[in-house]
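Lab notebook: predicted structure, single chain.

Context: the supervisor wants predicted structures on file for every construct in the current expression panel, including those that have not yet been purified. This is the next one on the list. No modifications to the sequence; it matches the entry in the shared construct table.
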Amino acid sequence: MHNVCPQSHNYSVTSKKRKARVYPKKGLYLEGTFGTGKTFLMGYLLHELALSGLNGVIVYMPDFVEDLKSMIQEGQKLKETTEMLKNCDLLVFDDIGAENLSPWVRDHVMGSILNYRMNRKPTFYTSNYSLQGLEKHLSFTSKDGEELYKGQRLMDRIRPFVDVITVKGKNQRG
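Prediction complete. Output recorded below exactly as produced.
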């Protein structure tokens, strides 16, 4: 686990579309209890990085999983959404672990997005789970029950590509 300040985060330069883009080498995984400001901090980080010309998307996982259910019938919209998430400069999965996963969302949607991004662009996360807790969550779906190797497979696309920061504090929501 690391304490990483956005200003001191390691960056790498990659050339894309005639323009040099500066990407953090790794994403961040902000873990902590409810209401400690993880989402606020991630929004601020994206704002600051956007000032340097990078674009970003914040995906609230519980809503995203529900939205994907309606997109099953709209193949083109699903494809456009996953392509946008694969290709945006900075991607945040907010509150990962709070969603009810189906095998399709975990294996085909999340797996595809993370597989594409893992050595190309940083992905950021906020969660109430530690990485170990997230792996357990990702190993279980309401349809198929526990599938440990499926959770491990997804974590192989998360764990090596993030620095973990524990956000401590009092619940600011009330």
